[in-house]
Amino acid sequence: MALQVVDLEVSYGKKEVIFGVSLDVKEGGLVALVGPNGAGKSTTLHTILGLLHPRKGTIIYNGQDISRRTPVENVKNGISLVSQGGRCFSDLTVLENLQLGGHMYKDPSELDQRIASVYDIFPLLQERKYQRAGSLSGGERQMLAMGRALMPSPELFLLDEPSAGLSPIMAKEMMKTMKYLSKEKGISTLIVEQNIREVFAVADEAYVMKVGQIVLHNDNPNSLIGDENVRRSYLS
Predict the structure, then answer these.
(1) Which end is more exposed in the chain, N or C (fewer Cβ atoms within 10 Å of the end residue's Cβ)?
(2) Minimal CA–CA distance to 209: which of 74, 55, 50, 10?
(3) Are 32 and 199 contacting, i.e. CB atoms less than 8 angstroms apart?
(4) CA distance 41 to 23
(5) What is the C-alpha separation between 23 and 3, in angstroms, rounded?
(6) Residue 227 — pLDDT band, cuts 50, 70, 90?
(7) What is the pLDDT of residue 87?
(8) In angstroms, what is the C-alpha Rg of the chain?
(9) What is the pLDDT of residues 75-99, one digit of tens each?
(10) pLDDT class for 234, splitting at 50, 70, 90?
(11) Would you give the DSSP letter of residue 51?
């Protein structure tokens, strides 16, 4: 198992926002975490990365307890997070953004190889490599944010609303890329997503979250799309 979250409880000060959340991501698995706004999905991702520390519970990554590790330690050990909104360094070029993502490579040839591998996944980034990130479209910035997060060769990929603000066609392509990274590159992936139909089409499993708790787990996410009771109760 790549990731196991067990009975996670998280608070902001005295206000508890996550209540006993448990979820698993298998090696090379693609797992969707969905639910209404304010359910605690992003908080869960931030806690896994180490931006927040749990009040109770355990986070196990590759067999090791990382519940108290820092984000820097987790990134060094193969966890990458892509935050919502395609955040990039706007005044830097596409290439410079990728180079920053690969700052751990001391050998220039190794850095170039990693950049080339990102271009293989997102050919458009190579076409735009000398263009300032701030001048890219929303979809292009999202590609760049993902490409930068892929530079350290992560084993666990955490994505927060990767299709937010994208056109339907671009959102579908983004999900295809997620499936490719999982199935062809073996990157274990946990996606927080509001675009239920598209993410369920590619996910191996889905967890539905509401008011800080997991209320449903299904290993056939597509079956949930047509379930009106599920949509009405948990996804609206």
Answers:
(1) C
(2) 10
(3) yes
(4) 12
(5) 8
(6) confident
(7) 86
(8) 17
(9) 999 999 999 877 899 999 999 999 9
(10) low
(11) S
Which pair of tokens denotes residue 179? Answer: 């499936």
Cβ–Cβ < 8 Å for 52, 43: yes
Map out the domains of the chain with their CATH numbers. Answer: 3-89+155-235 (3.40.50.300)
pLDDT at 115: 98
Q: Residue 55 CB: number of other CB atoms within 10 A?
A: 13
At residue 236 the predicted structure's pLDDT band, cuts being 50, 70 and 90, is: low
Please state, in angstroms and rounded to a whole number, the distance separating the CA atoms of residues 5 and 3: 7
16-31 b/e (C-beta count within 10 Å ≥ 16 → b): ebbeebebbbeebbbb
The pair of structure tokens assigned to 57 is 């519970």
Nearest Cα neighbor of 143 from 156, 44, 127, 155 is 127
Amino acid (one-letter) located at 22: S
